[in-house]
Structures are given as structure tokens and as C-alpha cells.
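Q: what sequence does this backbone want?
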């Protein structure tokens, strides 16, 4: 990895994990980041925290816009009406990356509220910059593992939709177990959806697309809106990871299922 100077002229990649955690907490005290999970009985995670470079713009956005848009992770139900200051349809997005697609979707669907969940601090900074500068009001961010967020903060039947765009493919056989889209996780998603609510997934890895189709089709509470894969809905722009996949010659598969 090429070393890049951090906000204080130091080199981020030369920090130890604990120093990086401390630095993140110092610029963004509400960040739910405490360094790598070293506990013995940890659940297999769908992500590895990458300590990417935090740009000056992202750091400033964390500071300026974090208090308005970020909701700290808590082991308790989130009052969404209070968080958004209104009652509206609610869509939760898992793993928004740098957040360009999230900001674009939210700007185009102002009648809907979006809860973006991401673990990567530079991504949170990047989305905050887009939201703050674009004055987009219908997004809130929780920086934490989406599994915990769904289990602890979202009430059963609390959501109208879930977006998961280009989740980490974990394409090596021995890493497949880290994939997010598995039967137990989809059961959790379904439990948080209202009747009629939707799950929209997209991937550029064909074998993951096949797995997604099998897992969603195997859930008795879900109905496919298409015959197999779905056409990309108008509201979803191309995402950063999708563009990268397309450049590598990958195909793209969308899936849209509804809860009965
Ligand atoms: C391959 S990237 C895709 C980003 C974006 N959706 C796009 O298409 O450009 C997957 C993202 O999901 C995030 N992620 C993976 N597992 C997660 C989890 N359990 N909770 C929250 N975020 C997660 C990663 O940090 C990463 O930013």
C-alpha cells in the first residue's frame, strides 16, 4: 500500500490499529470504532476494517455534518420518527461504501427516509460531505456492523425496504462463509420488513448472484418481483464498485423480492 500523509502530516498507514482507532475517535467522538475485534467468540464478520486514508474533506465533513446525520450505535431500538423528524417510508442500506449512490437515490426519493449503515470511516466522511453540501435531509447514518444494527436498533416490521449493493464478494471458496447474503441473515432482514416491503440486492459476481437468487427464493416469506434476475430499477444509479466491476468485464445482476 502506498503511504499517504494523514490530516496532521503523519502517515496513516504507519499507525498501529490502536493509534488509528484513537485518531478516529478524536476527530469523530461518536464513531463506533474501537479497533479490530480480538474477542475469542466473535461472529464471522462480512467485512474487514480497512484503514483507508481519511481525506481532509472527509474529516471536515465528519466534524461539520456528523452531529446532524450520524446516529451512534446503541443496543436499543431506534425511534425512527424522532430521528428523521417525520413519519415516512424507511429504507435501510447496508454497506454504502463512499455513498455516491446513496446520496443520489435519497435526493431523487425525497418522500422516503434512508438509514445508511457502513463500518468504514472514510466512507462515512464521504457520504456526510455529499449530504451536507447537497443539503439532503432524508438520510441518517449508523457506523456499525449492520447485523447488530438490524438486531438491536430496528423494530420488527419497521422497514419498507432494504438495499444491499455490491456487498463484498468474498469470492475465494474458503472466504465464502463471510458473505452477507445467507439464509439466516435474510431471515433477519425479512423480520425487519413490513408486509409488502422489498429487498433489493445487486452484485457483479455471477456465483454470488446465483447464491443470492437461491437464498432469497428459498425464503418462504419472499416473492420474486421478476422471473429470476430483475432489470435495474430506475432509482438505482451505477455505483463505484459496479463501475469497477464493469471495467473488469463483469456482468451485473439485480434482484428485487417483496415480503408477502
Ligand atoms: C464492496 S463495497 C460496496 C460499496 C457500495 N455499495 C458500492 O457499490 O460502491 C461493500 C461495503 O460494505 C461494507 N460492509 C460490509 N459488511 C458490512 C456490515 N456487516 N455492516 C456494515 N457495512 C458493511 C464494507 O465496509 C464496504 O464498504
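A:
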Amino acid at each position: 500500500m502506498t503511504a499517504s500523509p494523514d490530516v496532521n502530516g503523519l502517515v496513516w498507514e504507519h499507525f498501529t490499529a490502536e493509534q488509528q482507532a484513537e485518531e478516529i475517535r478524536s476527530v469523530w467522538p461518536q464513531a463506533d470504532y474501537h479497533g479490530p475485534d480480538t474477542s475469542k467468540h466473535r461472529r464471522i464478520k462480512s467485512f474487514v476494517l480497512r484503514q483507508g486514508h481519511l481525506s481532509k474533506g472527509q474529516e471536515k465533513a465528519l466534524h461539520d455534518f456528523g452531529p446532524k446525520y450520524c446516529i451512534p450505535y446503541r443496543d436499543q431500538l431506534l425511534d425512527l420518527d424522532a430521528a428523521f423528524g417525520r413519519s415516512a417510508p424507511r429504507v435501510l442500506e447496508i454497506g454504502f461504501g463512499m455513498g455516491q449512490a446513496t446520496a443520489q437515490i435519497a435526493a431523487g426519493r425525497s418522500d422516503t427516509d434512508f438509514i445508511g449503515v457502513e463500518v468504514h470511516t472514510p466512507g462515512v466522511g464521504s457520504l456526510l460531505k455529499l449530504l451536507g453540501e447537497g443539503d439532503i435531509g432524508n438520510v441518517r447514518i449508523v457506523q456499525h456492523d449492520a447485523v447488530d444494527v438490524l438486531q438491536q436498533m430496528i423494530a420488527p416490521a419497521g422497514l419498507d425496504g432494504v438495499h444491499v449493493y455490491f456487498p463484498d464478494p468474498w469470492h475465494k471458496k474458503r472466504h465464502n462463509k463471510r458473505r452477507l447474503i445467507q439464509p439466516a441473515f435474510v431471515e433477519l432482514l425479512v423480520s425487519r420488513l413490513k408486509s409488502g416491503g422489498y429487498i433489493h440486492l445487486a452484485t457483479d459476481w455471477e456465483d454470488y448472484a446465483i447464491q443470492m437468487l437461491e437464498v432469497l427464493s428459498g425464503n418462504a416469506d419472499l416473492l420474486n418481483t421478476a422471473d429470476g434476475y430483475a432489470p435495474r430499477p430506475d432509482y438505482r444509479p451505477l455505483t463505484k464498485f459496479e463501475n469497477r466491476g464493469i471495467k473488469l468485464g463483469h456482468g451485473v445482476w439485480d434482484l428485487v423480492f417483496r415480503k408477502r
